[in-house]
Amino acid sequence: MTNVINDDEVELYALLGLMVRNAADLEFHLQSLAAYLSQSPYAHLWIHGVSASEALRLIREIAKEHPRVTPPESAAFEDLAKRASQLLSRRHAYVHGAWTMDGATPEAPTYQAIRFTKGKQQPRFDPLSKEDLGDLTQKLSALDSEIMSWQVELIKKINAEDEGLREARAKGW
């Protein structure tokens, strides 16, 4: 594979850039959510900069124990986290694989990513396509919006509860 991009590949590489950006947005928002849920002024020391997968793990653990996250809210996040894990796994082939052309059908060559995975002796081959990359890009963006909505709803609920407590204290209750 050369470093020269032909006209047919421009869309593929544009989609790759969008997908990487959407995955980075998701990772940032997951780190922010984990820091928010931790309620620690020192969260930046152990949360900022972690991978998206690690942020998901932290959020899952914190949400289960957080006194203001209800079991249904935690379960709703668990669904989002499972979907995020699946999408991030798909992302790995595009970002961590070496791209090659599968020349099995010379009239219609296709891209594939080849990469080694931990504990496996033989490399893994994943098909790459504009269609799949476009789908992944869109799903990462949509999921990021859903996770942000989950966080916004939680913040609204907590703020409303806090306001209710302040009002009750002001009335002497």
Describe what this molecule looks like in 3D.
There is one protein chain. The chain has 173 residues and is mainly α. It has one domain. Helix content is 66%, strand content 9%. It contains five helices and three strands. A three-stranded antiparallel beta sheet has the order 1-2-3.
Radius of gyration: 21 Å
User: How would a crystallographer describe the biggest sheet?
Assistant: 3 strands, antiparallel
Average the pLDDT over all residues and give the rounded result: 92
Instruction: Classify the secondary structure makeup into a structural class.
Output: mainly alpha
Which regions are unreliable across 5 or more consecutive residues at pLDDT < 50? none
Measured between the Cα atoms of the first and last residue, the distance is: 72 Å
Q: Number of DSSP strands?
A: 3
The geometry reads as elongated
Question: What order do the strands of the largest sheet run in, or round the barrel if closed?
Answer: 1-2-3
Number of domains: 1
SSE run: HHHHEEEH
Beta content: 5-15%
How much helical structure, as a percent, in the residues? 55-70%
Number of helices: 5
Care to give the gist of this entry?
This protein is mainly alpha-helical. It has helices spanning 10-38, 43-46, 52-65, 71-96, 130-170; strands at 98-102, 110-115, 124-128.
Key words describing this protein structure:
173 residues, 5 helices, mainly alpha
